Amino acid sequence: MGLLVCCAGAAAQGANADSARAAALFEEALGNGQSYERLRELTKGVGHRLSGSPEAERAMVWGGEVLEANGADSVYVMPVVVPAWTRGTVCSASAGNMPLRVTALGGSVPTPDDAPLSAPCLVVRGIEELAELPRSATEGRIILFNRPMDPLLINTGAAYGGAVDQRGQGAIAAAKAGGVAALVRSMTHAYDTIPHTGAMYYEEGIPRVPAAAISTVDARELAHQIAADPDLEVTLSMNCRDLGEREQGNVIGVLRGQEFPDRVIALGGHLDSWDIGEGAHDDGAGVVHTLEALRLLKAIGYEPRHTFHFVLFINEENGNRGGKAYAEWAATNEAGIRVVGAMESDAGGLVPRGFSVDAAPEHVAWLQAQLPSLEPYGLNSSRSGWAGVDISPLKTQEPRPLLVGLLPDGQRYFDFHHSARDVFENVHKRELELGAASCALMLVMMDQQLD
């Protein structure tokens, strides 16, 4: 009985300590937080940060300076060779007398000779429908992929995932069918006139045709006009360019562990962004969550058991080379360092609702068991199966690390995602601060849980 009482007392003391740390983190974030000002510096001072661009270089320098100022024991750059591309100065489209709101998809080739390309337009709901059509119906046409994100799915990330194949693979499918260009309905639930960019890809041996995103309003109107006139011509003009490759890198701040210095728990967001808007939600929010989590832990005097890596990943948007490079380092480093856990914030700066987890069943069960203690902070939701793009390459390692993602409320996220609306003014200060405290708290929880 004495042992049980002793253990119960120790458990109670541990719970009280955990509760006190959580309160201290949120009080510091909400009372003295720097995340909002850091986001202003990044978005207004640096701007958009497309991989391979001079702005991405400046963001790397800025991120390293903030990591040092926030108390990292050391800061270094992990070199990563990234693609460089520019959308140029021209991206326009029209159908008859109707102008269309479009923007080049990332990685697209220009229209031939940078001149306007005109062709009849064919509307399909997706890649599968296009593949079923006879070549006589598709050859020589601009293909409009007009499948919307599923409005019936409460999980907007799942709705995005169910539609985004036409953006990534649409140009390949169009070319295979003899099409001359691809237009893709923007990946958003919003019904507006703002096109949303994003990565697209080509396939070796398949002709490369230009690809652009079209706003949801214009996609719907264009589809209506083509239904009335199947031979309606669309004119598209783009002068984007492939600029080859450049060396940039992941910026990493290190906070050394006291008990397990050779075992790492990482927290990160991606420093790169698309070149329209300012990359405020995607992923400026995740970057400043990462930077602020370091500051918060230092502010409350927390000494981690494991070594913490605060990682500003490069090239998430169009290749994930930063995430892959970090995972390769984790798998092959000669210092005997092992990544036992990682967390990512790449779902915007909206109000946090909980965490996603991609891990072994016992780790999923552990997170589920923590939800009651997180309820005072509104973090009572969990989702299993995915944690984030940058940390996903770590999942193949053995033993499998615990991977966690911040789970903000996603209902409005795709209003901003990859668009000109993704600017500082569309991030709420308090919601951003709550996200930073949530990231810091989960780091502590992982640090206390893992061996």
Number of helices, where a helix is a run of at least 4 consecutive DSSP H or I residues: 13
Q: Please give the radius of gyration in angstroms.
A: 23 Å
Global shape: elongated
Question: In the residues, how many domains can be counted?
Answer: 2
Distance between the termini: 28 Å
CATH architectural category of the largest domain: 3-Layer(aba) Sandwich
**Helix percent band:** 25-40%
CATH class of the largest domain: Alpha Beta
The share of residues in extended strands comes to 15-25%
N-to-C SSE series?
HHHEEEEEHHEHHEEHEEEHEHEEHEEHH
In the predicted model, the low-confidence regions spanning at least 5 consecutive residues are: 1-13
Q: What strand order characterises the main sheet?
A: 1-10-12-11-13-16-14-15
Write the CATH fold name of the largest domain: Aminopeptidase
For this structure, what is the CATH homologous superfamily of the largest domain?
Answer: Zn peptidases
Largest sheet: 8 strands, mixed
Give the strand tally: 16
Mean pLDDT comes to: 95
